[in-house]
Structures are given as structure tokens and as C-alpha cells.
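Q: Got a minute? One more chain.
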Amino acid sequence: MAADSGIAPRLDVAALRGRGRASRLVRHRSAMIGLVVMGLWILIATVGPFLVRGNPSSAFGYQNLSQALLPPSRAHLLGTDQLGRDEAVRLIEGARYTLFISVVAVAAGLAAGLPLGALSGFLGGRFDLVAQRFVDIVLAFPSFVLALALVSFLGTGIRNLVIAIAAASFPRFTRVVRAAVIMVMAQPYEEAAHVQGVRRSRILIRHVLPNAMPAIFVQVPLELGAAILTAAGLGYLGFGVPQPTPEWGSMLGTAQNYIFGHSYLVTFPGLCVFSFVLACNLIGDGLRDVFDPRLAGG
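A: Always. Here it is, folded:
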């Protein structure tokens, strides 16, 4: 028998914890709604453009003024814009650009904020002081104003838009990671690792960062929603993706002159932005409740 062999069965605590969190996430209603909505948008952005390629309206330069400003109908489910372009096709095409800009910008902000925040919280001292004063300077500017200033200086385009949004998001990642690292460093098992002579770099990589990941998981969807709003806002003001490339914010900007007579041109892009940002916030709240059950309310 196993009991007589002197070998006790090993309990995989990490695996059990992971399964428990996954089950709590599945039971979290608002988080699941957010995941479904986000999954639908990812599916639309991935598959949708290939399904509408046969439609001549999918061409960026396509114009048919004889079909301009048509209301939603069977031929054009969401109507046409002022140049006769199918609104549904442009929204599907625009989902690719809006989501691509937001995802890449958040990834870049995380790539910059994660190491800076981890080293700031782990090393402390003068490095922490200098790093946090730099972060304070960046945070002194409202994120949208900072992104607007950077785009105005760098110029419009997808690359510059990604840089501007990433620069506005990385200070928040830095603060979140730093706070999580400081909390982990205060745990007894970290002190025990120091006493046993484990190298500091190994402690940071093998122990501190993995235990700080829940805070990052919660922050990522929230930052993704903020990036969507920033990209849409810049596009609305004319500092986003240049025309005729479809993007939800720029579509809102060009449609503002038709808000009273043809409100659908503003309604549908606005609903797209609203639905995706809401999904991101629902997922972020759900992950927060999953990693800290004391806050569960979903």
C-alpha cells in the first residue's frame, strides 16, 4: 500500500488553486458576459473581414454617392455613410484596427511598466525614489491629454497612436506591479528565502513575480478598455488613423455632422466602443473578485 511505502502523495496546491479560480470565474455572471462579448468582437475582427471581402464596399477607397446616407435596410443592414459606403462593412473592418491598436498599446505599456515596477518595488532605495518620481511626472498629465500631445508631436498613424497610448498606460502598470511586489516581499516565505541564501534575482523571478501576477491580470482588461476609449477619442478629434481606413473613433468624428438627420451613423460606432469597453470592465471586475473572494459581488 502507498501508506506503507513511506512516500506521501504530493498535493499540487497550485493546480488546485488554479482550478478553484477558474470555477469561480465561470460562476461569475458579469465576468462571463464580458468574456462572451469580447470573444464575439475578437471573432468578428478575425473572421469578419474575410467574409465581407466580396462586398465592394469593403474597399477603403470605395465610394458610391448614389447610395449615400441610406437608412438601415435589407440591402445595407446598418445603412450607408455620406460617401455611400456600407456602414456594417466598415464597422467590421474597423474592429480589426481598433482592437489591434488597443492590444498592441497595452502590451507595450505592460512591457515597459512590468520591469520598472518590479525593480522599483524589489530594490527600493534610491532606484525606487527616482523611478517613482519619473512616474509621478507622467501621471501629472491626464492620460488622454498626454496621448493627444504625443500624437500631435509624432503625427497621425497607427504606429504613433500605439506609442501615444502605451506611454499613457505604462505608469499605471508600474504602480500596480510595484504595489503587488511590495506586498509579496512582506510575506514570511520571502524572508525565509533570503535566510537560506537564495540569490535575489532568483527570488524575484521565481517567487515574487509569479505571486504578483494576479494584480496584473486584473489591470490588463481595464487598461484595454481605457486604450479603446483613448483611441476612439483621438480618432474622433482627427488624430487617429487617417481616412479612408475605417476605425470606430474616426467614424464617429466624420459622422458628427449627420447626428440629427442620420443618427445611425453615430449610434452604431458608439455602441461598438461602448460594448467592448463594458466587456473589458466586466472582465476586470470579475478577475478582481476571483483573485480576492472577499470582494466578490458578481
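A: The two ends are 45 Å apart (CA to CA).
Q: Perfect, thanks.
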